[in-house]
Records
---
Amino acid sequence: MKKSILTLACALITPLAFAQTSTTTTEQTTTTAPATTTETTTTYSAGTVTTYEPGKTIVVKSEQGPVSFVLGTAARIVDGAGRIVTAPLRSGQKVKVYYTGNGEKRVVERVLVEE
């Protein structure tokens, strides 16, 4: 009887004696990219609307002649109080077009309707 109890005890303890422990090491690295700065300047052109295609382009006749602008997705048309204008622009309306870029790549940020 003692022999069978001793054998049973050894059988229960043996797996614990030979069990291996594992160690997990986690390493966290942080990399930083060099900072780049992009400078954009916003300028405006004042004049009267000659052509307006909602969501596409606006052409304004200014002192330099007709100037074409691309209406970006973020372009807002506002009145003097800063309220958004929902009515489409009409030919002959006085506006200030605030834009970025130059040449063929003038992108409108905001159109201020002066009337």
---
Amino acid sequence: MTVKVGFENLPAPIIKHLNNVMNMRPVYPHVYHVTELTMCLRKAYYRRVYGGGQRGVKGLWNMYRGSVLDSAWSPLFDFNQRTFVVTKRGVTITGTCDFVYDDGSGSILYDLKMPASTYYRKREGAGQGYRRQCAAYLALAHANGELVDVHRARVLMVAEEVVVEEVGEWTDMLDSWLWPRAFLLDAALSSKDPSILQSPEEGWECREEFCSASTDFRIKCAYQGRDLELPVRVSMEEFEEAASSEREVDR
């Protein structure tokens, strides 16, 4: 009996389909999605400058799985997939709410997440990034004059387990936190100067000396997201060749 394990064993037409449908979200100058503003601003900057890179098959599958379930589940609720847009001083912030549901205790805004695992979420909760995204959708809705009677939000995470976390309303989030970050990111991109952004925000692996000094590290940040390695001093050509090889292995 022959048993093969790994996402590279998916038939080629399925892999092609994943690549075709899971395109990166288009980006526009001066328009920022909530997910950009709630992550590390330097990461958001580098992703816009260097591009997000091509994901491996497993990464594409994780995104696809979430997208398919979201498209099937969100329409079960009357208020779903509503996009909110706010503009100020030539800068726009946008975000899309998954759905709103009244479970008998009042209407609640839900942000649906399909992480690869909920192992740590069961002990530590959704995490700061997820909580901020959820609160931001509620803040944008209120700024648009929508969901004004909704003051509760939840992150709903579904993987090998279902984990739900209540998120408190951040009443002045837009003015005190989102707009300052949006203006700062916009200024950095306009001036092509990431040094005006605050220090790396993602974690221990994003130390200042790497983020601000190493071009290789910036590109790895744009390509790989959180799963960063310490920077390797290689040429751009060597890095692109290595990245291409890794993508072929993933396939």
---
Amino acid sequence: MRARRLVMSSALLALLLTSCASLNTTQKNAIGGGILGAGAGALIGHQTGHAAGGAAIGGALGALTGTAVGYQQQQQEQRSASLQRQINQQQREIRKLKTQQQEQEQAKQSDDRY
């Protein structure tokens, strides 16, 4: 019976993880924290005879912690993406200025020939 429960739990966890592809970082971490917290709470609660209560409390605390960590990660990802967009824009401007400079130099050289 335990083996069957373990297989079913693993299959459910795999399904949850694969269905989270469209979620943002905060949401993914909230779910992951909730799952880990519920598992840890159930294990701790089992020792005291209150596995369900431990799982509920652990899941809630895990979800809150996961949300907080995920939010911070998401903010960092957004800052990094913004900086990368600025770098890309500046690189395009530099290439454009270099091209203009080369064209001006070529025009000046052709004017000097005549």
